[in-house]
Write a structure and sequence with these properties.
By secondary structure, this protein is α+β, with helices and mostly antiparallel strands. The chain has a single domain, classed as 2-Layer Sandwich (Alpha-Beta Plaits). The chain contains two helices and five strands, in the order E-H-E-E-H-E-E. Strands 4-1-3-2-5 form a five-stranded mixed β-sheet, covered by helices on one side. Helix 1 runs antiparallel to helix 2. The termini are far apart.
């Protein structure tokens, strides 16, 4: 199956609601590699790589996020995968 890469930025009430933790857990369950982090402006940013259907499922999950989150806008850039990730991490 084809591998894809998505760079995302999530805007809304997405910090202080365990968004990064749940994103990592969801990514690991789906077999997606990459990272997620909080940004100083209150957004959450991430890069996801893996099988097409699994990355798309994680991107769709980000449209809602975990309980307590309120996603107002999801920005997505589809890119060529680089294969640089071995796992999924929360970065600072």
């Amino acid at each position: 199956m084809k591998e894809i890469r998505a760079s995302v930025r999530i805007r809304g009430v997405v910090q202080g609601v365990s968004f990064r933790y749940h994103t990592r857990r969801t990514a690991e369950n789906l077999g997606v590699r990459g990272w997620v982090r909080n940004l100083p402006n209150g957004d959450v940013e991430g890069v996801f790589e893996g099988k097409d259907s699994q990355v798309r499922e994680l991107v769709n999950w980000c449209r809602k996020g975990p309980e307590g989150a309120r996603v107002e806008k999801l920005f997505i850039d589809w890119e060529e995968p680089t294969g640089e990730f071995e796992d999924f991490r929360v970065v600072r």
